[in-house]
Amino acid sequence: MKLNKLTLALSLSLMSCATMADEVSSLLKAADLFRMSSENMQIETQISTFNREGNLEKERRYMVFSQAKHQSLVLMQSPAEKGQKMLMLGDDFWMVLAGSQRPLRITPLQKLLGDASIGDVSTMSWSQDYEGEVVAEERCEDKPCIRLSLNANRKGVAYQHIDLWLGKVRHEPIKADLYVLSGKFAKQASFIMDKANAPSTVVEMVLLDKLGSNKETRMRYLSRKDKTVPEQWMNPMFLAKNPNRE
Protein backbone atom coordinates (compact mmCIF):
# COMPACT_ATOMS: atom_id res chain seq x y z
CA MET A 1 0.00 0.00 0.00
CA LYS A 2 2.82 2.40 0.93
CA LEU A 3 4.53 1.68 -2.40
CA ASN A 4 1.35 2.40 -4.30
CA LYS A 5 0.90 5.71 -2.47
CA LEU A 6 4.52 6.66 -3.22
CA THR A 7 4.08 5.75 -6.88
CA LEU A 8 0.89 7.81 -7.03
CA ALA A 9 2.60 10.79 -5.40
CA LEU A 10 5.51 10.62 -7.84
CA SER A 11 3.13 10.35 -10.77
CA LEU A 12 1.16 13.37 -9.62
CA SER A 13 4.38 15.31 -9.11
CA LEU A 14 5.60 14.48 -12.62
CA MET A 15 2.21 15.43 -14.06
CA SER A 16 2.34 18.73 -12.19
CA CYS A 17 5.84 19.48 -13.54
CA ALA A 18 4.76 18.62 -17.08
CA THR A 19 1.69 20.85 -16.76
CA MET A 20 3.82 23.74 -15.49
CA ALA A 21 6.32 23.28 -18.33
CA ASP A 22 3.48 23.34 -20.86
CA GLU A 23 2.08 26.49 -19.26
CA VAL A 24 5.43 28.29 -19.40
CA SER A 25 6.01 27.16 -22.98
CA SER A 26 2.59 28.51 -24.01
CA LEU A 27 3.23 31.83 -22.29
CA LEU A 28 6.63 32.26 -23.96
CA LYS A 29 5.26 31.37 -27.40
CA ALA A 30 2.55 34.00 -26.95
CA ALA A 31 5.14 36.57 -25.84
CA ASP A 32 7.41 35.74 -28.80
CA LEU A 33 4.62 36.59 -31.24
CA PHE A 34 4.77 40.22 -30.16
CA ARG A 35 8.35 40.35 -31.47
CA MET A 36 8.31 37.71 -34.23
CA SER A 37 5.19 36.87 -36.23
CA SER A 38 6.90 34.02 -38.13
CA GLU A 39 10.09 31.94 -38.03
CA ASN A 40 11.73 33.69 -40.99
CA MET A 41 11.72 37.48 -40.89
CA GLN A 42 13.52 40.62 -41.95
CA ILE A 43 13.65 43.30 -39.25
CA GLU A 44 15.06 46.78 -39.80
CA THR A 45 16.45 47.92 -36.44
CA GLN A 46 17.72 51.27 -35.21
CA ILE A 47 19.86 51.37 -32.06
CA SER A 48 20.38 54.64 -30.19
CA THR A 49 22.50 55.16 -27.08
CA PHE A 50 22.02 57.93 -24.51
CA ASN A 51 24.33 59.08 -21.71
CA ARG A 52 23.35 59.57 -18.07
CA GLU A 53 22.04 63.06 -18.86
CA GLY A 54 19.75 61.67 -21.56
CA ASN A 55 21.71 63.10 -24.50
CA LEU A 56 22.03 61.06 -27.69
CA GLU A 57 25.56 59.68 -28.12
CA LYS A 58 25.37 57.37 -31.14
CA GLU A 59 22.86 55.91 -33.55
CA ARG A 60 23.19 52.94 -35.90
CA ARG A 61 20.97 50.91 -38.22
CA TYR A 62 20.96 47.15 -38.78
CA MET A 63 19.10 44.81 -41.09
CA VAL A 64 18.38 41.58 -39.24
CA PHE A 65 17.36 38.36 -41.01
CA SER A 66 16.06 36.07 -38.28
CA GLN A 67 15.61 32.55 -39.58
CA ALA A 68 14.41 29.19 -38.27
CA LYS A 69 16.71 26.76 -36.41
CA HIS A 70 18.52 29.48 -34.41
CA GLN A 71 19.98 31.21 -37.44
CA SER A 72 20.35 34.98 -37.86
CA LEU A 73 22.23 37.31 -40.16
CA VAL A 74 22.82 40.96 -39.22
CA LEU A 75 23.92 43.47 -41.88
CA MET A 76 25.35 46.77 -40.64
CA GLN A 77 23.71 49.67 -42.49
CA SER A 78 25.29 52.85 -41.08
CA PRO A 79 28.30 54.46 -42.84
CA ALA A 80 30.63 53.84 -39.87
CA GLU A 81 29.99 50.06 -40.04
CA LYS A 82 28.92 49.58 -43.67
CA GLY A 83 29.94 46.20 -45.06
CA GLN A 84 30.21 44.45 -41.70
CA LYS A 85 28.08 41.38 -41.04
CA MET A 86 27.30 39.15 -38.09
CA LEU A 87 26.13 35.57 -38.44
CA MET A 88 24.60 33.31 -35.79
CA LEU A 89 24.27 29.59 -36.39
CA GLY A 90 22.97 27.90 -33.27
CA ASP A 91 25.58 28.49 -30.57
CA ASP A 92 28.24 29.76 -33.01
CA PHE A 93 28.74 33.43 -33.87
CA TRP A 94 30.90 35.04 -36.56
CA MET A 95 31.75 38.62 -37.52
CA VAL A 96 32.70 39.41 -41.12
CA LEU A 97 34.54 42.72 -41.43
CA ALA A 98 34.39 44.83 -44.57
CA GLY A 99 37.18 43.89 -46.97
CA SER A 100 38.13 40.75 -45.04
CA GLN A 101 37.79 37.19 -46.34
CA ARG A 102 38.29 35.60 -42.92
CA PRO A 103 35.26 35.39 -40.59
CA LEU A 104 36.06 36.06 -36.92
CA ARG A 105 34.61 33.99 -34.09
CA ILE A 106 32.78 36.14 -31.53
CA THR A 107 30.51 35.70 -28.51
CA PRO A 108 26.83 36.66 -28.18
CA LEU A 109 27.73 39.22 -25.47
CA GLN A 110 30.07 41.26 -27.67
CA LYS A 111 28.69 44.75 -28.15
CA LEU A 112 27.19 46.24 -31.28
CA LEU A 113 26.46 49.66 -29.82
CA GLY A 114 26.12 50.94 -26.29
CA ASP A 115 24.61 48.21 -24.13
CA ALA A 116 23.01 46.33 -27.04
CA SER A 117 24.88 43.08 -27.54
CA ILE A 118 24.93 40.91 -30.63
CA GLY A 119 22.69 38.51 -28.73
CA ASP A 120 20.13 41.26 -28.13
CA VAL A 121 19.80 41.89 -31.86
CA SER A 122 20.17 38.42 -33.33
CA THR A 123 18.24 36.17 -30.94
CA MET A 124 14.50 36.55 -30.65
CA SER A 125 12.93 33.37 -29.27
CA TRP A 126 12.33 32.93 -25.55
CA SER A 127 10.22 29.82 -26.15
CA GLN A 128 13.09 28.02 -27.89
CA ASP A 129 15.94 29.18 -25.70
CA TYR A 130 14.51 29.15 -22.16
CA GLU A 131 12.54 27.07 -19.72
CA GLY A 132 11.41 27.85 -16.19
CA GLU A 133 8.43 28.46 -13.98
CA VAL A 134 5.68 30.91 -13.18
CA VAL A 135 6.70 32.68 -9.97
CA ALA A 136 3.74 34.92 -9.19
CA GLU A 137 0.96 37.13 -10.41
CA GLU A 138 1.68 40.74 -9.48
CA ARG A 139 1.27 44.30 -10.70
CA CYS A 140 3.94 45.86 -12.88
CA GLU A 141 3.84 49.08 -14.88
CA ASP A 142 0.40 49.62 -13.29
CA LYS A 143 -1.18 46.52 -14.81
CA PRO A 144 -1.69 42.87 -13.75
CA CYS A 145 1.30 40.77 -14.80
CA ILE A 146 2.63 37.23 -14.70
CA ARG A 147 6.21 36.90 -13.48
CA LEU A 148 8.36 34.07 -14.86
CA SER A 149 11.78 32.84 -13.81
CA LEU A 150 13.66 31.50 -16.84
CA ASN A 151 16.94 29.64 -17.34
CA ALA A 152 18.68 29.12 -20.68
CA ASN A 153 18.49 25.63 -22.15
CA ARG A 154 21.48 26.14 -24.47
CA LYS A 155 24.83 27.90 -24.18
CA GLY A 156 24.69 30.27 -27.17
CA VAL A 157 22.45 32.89 -25.57
CA ALA A 158 23.46 36.27 -24.20
CA TYR A 159 21.72 35.79 -20.83
CA GLN A 160 21.67 32.63 -18.74
CA HIS A 161 18.80 33.75 -16.51
CA ILE A 162 15.85 36.08 -17.10
CA ASP A 163 13.12 37.33 -14.80
CA LEU A 164 10.34 38.16 -17.26
CA TRP A 165 7.05 39.98 -16.69
CA LEU A 166 4.18 39.43 -19.16
CA GLY A 167 0.77 41.05 -19.30
CA LYS A 168 -1.75 38.78 -17.60
CA VAL A 169 -4.44 39.11 -20.29
CA ARG A 170 -2.58 39.13 -23.62
CA HIS A 171 0.84 37.88 -22.41
CA GLU A 172 2.72 40.73 -24.08
CA PRO A 173 6.26 41.33 -22.73
CA ILE A 174 6.39 44.19 -20.22
CA LYS A 175 9.88 44.09 -18.74
CA ALA A 176 12.78 41.73 -18.08
CA ASP A 177 15.78 41.54 -15.74
CA LEU A 178 18.71 40.01 -17.64
CA TYR A 179 21.51 38.06 -15.91
CA VAL A 180 24.78 36.85 -17.46
CA LEU A 181 26.54 33.53 -16.80
CA SER A 182 28.33 34.82 -13.69
CA GLY A 183 24.96 35.55 -12.12
CA LYS A 184 25.36 39.33 -12.29
CA PHE A 185 22.33 41.51 -13.03
CA ALA A 186 23.50 42.97 -16.34
CA LYS A 187 20.58 44.84 -17.87
CA GLN A 188 16.97 45.73 -17.37
CA ALA A 189 14.78 45.69 -20.46
CA SER A 190 11.39 47.27 -20.98
CA PHE A 191 9.19 46.79 -24.01
CA ILE A 192 7.19 49.52 -25.70
CA MET A 193 4.10 48.32 -27.53
CA ASP A 194 2.32 49.78 -30.55
CA LYS A 195 -0.97 50.24 -28.67
CA ALA A 196 -1.27 50.55 -24.91
CA ASN A 197 -4.77 49.05 -24.53
CA ALA A 198 -4.66 46.43 -27.29
CA PRO A 199 -0.98 45.68 -27.97
CA SER A 200 -0.05 43.62 -31.01
CA THR A 201 3.65 44.36 -31.64
CA VAL A 202 6.75 45.43 -29.74
CA VAL A 203 7.98 48.59 -31.45
CA GLU A 204 10.93 49.32 -29.15
CA MET A 205 13.07 47.69 -26.48
CA VAL A 206 14.80 49.91 -23.91
CA LEU A 207 17.91 48.57 -22.15
CA LEU A 208 19.31 50.06 -18.95
CA ASP A 209 22.84 49.09 -17.96
CA LYS A 210 23.09 47.66 -14.45
CA LEU A 211 26.82 47.01 -14.34
CA GLY A 212 28.09 50.56 -14.00
CA SER A 213 27.52 52.91 -16.92
CA ASN A 214 23.80 53.54 -16.27
CA LYS A 215 23.43 54.33 -19.95
CA GLU A 216 20.21 53.80 -21.86
CA THR A 217 20.08 51.96 -25.17
CA ARG A 218 16.97 51.98 -27.33
CA MET A 219 16.36 49.33 -29.99
CA ARG A 220 13.58 50.51 -32.29
CA TYR A 221 12.06 48.13 -34.82
CA LEU A 222 11.44 50.26 -37.90
CA SER A 223 9.93 47.56 -40.09
CA ARG A 224 9.21 43.84 -40.15
CA LYS A 225 8.28 41.47 -42.95
CA ASP A 226 8.40 37.77 -43.72
CA LYS A 227 11.67 36.88 -45.43
CA THR A 228 13.50 33.61 -46.07
CA VAL A 229 17.07 34.22 -47.21
CA PRO A 230 19.05 31.94 -49.55
CA GLU A 231 20.70 29.03 -47.74
CA GLN A 232 24.22 30.11 -48.75
CA TRP A 233 23.81 33.35 -46.79
CA MET A 234 24.03 31.25 -43.64
CA ASN A 235 27.64 30.28 -44.42
CA PRO A 236 30.38 32.52 -42.94
CA MET A 237 32.87 31.76 -45.72
CA PHE A 238 30.29 32.59 -48.39
CA LEU A 239 29.58 35.93 -46.71
CA ALA A 240 33.28 36.76 -46.52
CA LYS A 241 33.92 35.96 -50.18
CA ASN A 242 30.65 37.48 -51.46
CA PRO A 243 30.35 40.80 -49.61
CA ASN A 244 27.44 42.30 -51.55
CA ARG A 245 24.18 41.40 -49.83
CA GLU A 246 20.91 43.28 -50.11
Indicate the mean pLDDT: 86
N-to-C order of helices and strands: HEEEEEEEEHHEEEEEEEH
Question: Radius of gyration over alpha carbons?
Answer: 20 Å
Distance between the termini: 69 Å
Content-based structural category: alpha+beta
> What is the second-level CATH architecture?
Clam
Oligomer: single chain
The number of distinct helices, counting runs of at least 4 residues, comes to: 4
Strand content: 35-45%
CATH superfamily, please? Lipoprotein localisation LolA/LolB/LppX
Spatially, the strands of the biggest sheet line up as 6-5-4-3-2-1-15-14-13-12-11-10-9
CATH class: Mainly Beta
CATH third-level topology: outer membrane lipoprotein receptor (LolB), chain A
Give the beta-strand count: 15
3D shape? globular
Helicity, as a percent range:
10-25%
Number of domains: 1
